[in-house]
Structure prediction request, 287 residues.
Amino acid sequence: MHIPPRAQRAVLLDNGMGAPQEYWDWVCDALPEDMGYVRFNRPGYGLSTPDTQYGVEGHFELLQELRDTYLAGLPLVLAGHSLGGYLVAAYASLHPDAVHGVTQVVMIDATEVVSLRHARRTDVDRWSHQRMLMEQLFAATGLSVFRPAMNVNQQYRPDINRSYRAFLATPRTWATAHREYRDAMTYPELTSLECPLTVVTAENNIGDNTLHAGIQARLAVISEQARHHFVDGSDHESLLAVRRHAEEVAELIAGDPPSGPLGSSWRPSTTARRADESAPDRERQPA
Prediction:
């Protein structure tokens, strides 16, 4: 948590499934000085206390408690990556009066729960289930330190990388992730959002990029004030793990929210690569 003495606004950052609060490090570093932030681990992750209350309602109460405790009175952006993107949007959409004081919601390569439900009992679902069980076993036996399942690019600062590896080497990280994965298949579909919405999508993903882009585009139509932005050269993890991508995400969080609907002539936006970034530099930065 970081709330500057003269903070004029703040952002509440919600993690993806199986990810620690540290993975927002580059984003937080790039936020303007007048913007505070709160990042946290959901119950069961890291050093947080496990929670026996499953489902979205318990998470809504947690987000409300964080707002009331640390961010009362400040204009607020709600931002989340992967499952966290769904959770912040669902909170703003479904929790009573939650949207009051929210200047925009930013869904970063967010989970779309209808598509997740449709994947139930498919090969993709079976592989996801098997993978999380394997990672839990690797963590319990100590093998995960030799082959980290996430943060494979190791693009963070050394202290953040060490903390991230320790997080992934904890068996309950994967037990909690597996529980969240199954839980998410029961979450309600998002149909409307009464505040500005920015949908941020990774350009490159495992599988069908066209299908992924279409699923992401469906998220943007739930608000009458929306934009859909692709981060050039990014994938699901590198949106936050690679510094230049995270800085682009931070600009979208801190910038002016969208003021109108996508419209019939909508095209996803991108930010051109910086002119001073050489081709060799780009080749060294993994997607």
About this structure: Residues 273-287 have pLDDT under 50 and may be disordered. The first helix runs from residue 25 to 30. Strands lie at 9-14, 35-39, 76-81, 102-108, 197-202, 226-231, 269-270. The first strand starts at residue 9 and ends at 14.
